[in-house]
Amino acid sequence: MASKIGQPFDQPGIWNGPYPSGAPAIFIDQVTRLGVPCGIISCVGNDGFGDINIHRLAADGVDIRGISVLPLEATGSAFVTYHNSGDRDFIFNIKNAACGKLSVQHVDENILKDCTHFHIMGSSLFSFHMVDAVKKVVTIVKENGGVISFDPNIRKEMLDIPEMRDALHFVLELTDIYMPSEGEVLLLSPHSTPERAIAGFLEEGVKEVIVKRGNQGASYYSANEQFHVESYPVEEVDPTGAGDCFGGAWIACRQLGFDAHRALQYANACGALAVTRRGPMEGTSRLAEIEAFIQRHDMSIREAAQ
Question: Signal peptide span per the entry (predicted)?
Fold first, then answer.
C-alpha cells in the first residue's frame, strides 16, 4: 500500500506492507471473527506472502484445509495507491499467480460434506478453470441443501467474454443471497432500472438482495419486505476491503440468527469500522467491537439531538 496520497506506480516511493489480503480472505476472516465456523478454498505459493495469509486466517479460526500450497507458483499480490479524490489505482498479480491456478482438482469434496453455505466472490471468476471449480462446489452444496451467496464484484470487461457471462449467470441462477453494490445492480440483469432488476432477481429465485451503497448505507429486498439502513459517519482512513467486511458481517450475522434489519445494521457498522483502519484485512471486527461502535454511535446521536 502506498504510504502517501498521490504516489505513482512508475516512481520510487515508500510502500507499507505486506498485509494479508484478497477479497475472499477478508470476507472469510470477518465471518470467523464473528464466531461462525468457516473455511476457504484457495491456492497460495510456498512463500512469505502465502504464509502471511495462511497464518492470519488460521490464527483467527478459519479452517484452512482447503488452501493448497503450490510450490512452483508465487502467491498472488496487489499494490494500491490513493488519490486526493478518494479513488484508488491497483496493480494485481492474480491471474498468473498461485490463486489463478485453482481448478476442480483443488476442490476436496470431503471438506464440503458438512457445508451449509457457500459464498462466491465475483472477483474470483477470472479464468475458465476457476469457473469450473466454482461450478463443482456450487453443485455439491446445492445438492446437499445448502445456501449460495454471491457478491458480483466483477471486472466489467469479463462480461464481454460470452463464456464468462454464461458462467456468471449460471452462478446467479443458483444464488439465494445476492449482494451487488449500487453500481453492479444492472450488470447481470436485462432490465434498465435498478428497481426492475431487483424485482427480476427475486422473481427468478433469489431470496434476498442486499445492495451496498457505500457511505449511504445499504438496502435489503425480499419477496416480503424491503428497507434501507443508513451507514455510520466516520473518518475514512482506508476503504480497501470494507465491502468484504460488510459482506462477511451480513452472512455471519444471519448465520447467528439475526433478523434482516439487525444484520444489516451490524454489517453497516462493520463496514464503517473497516474504513477507519489501515490495511485490507485489518478492518475485520469482532462482535463486541461492532456492538460497542453501535452503542457509541447511538449515544452521539442522542447527545446531538438534545
Answer: none
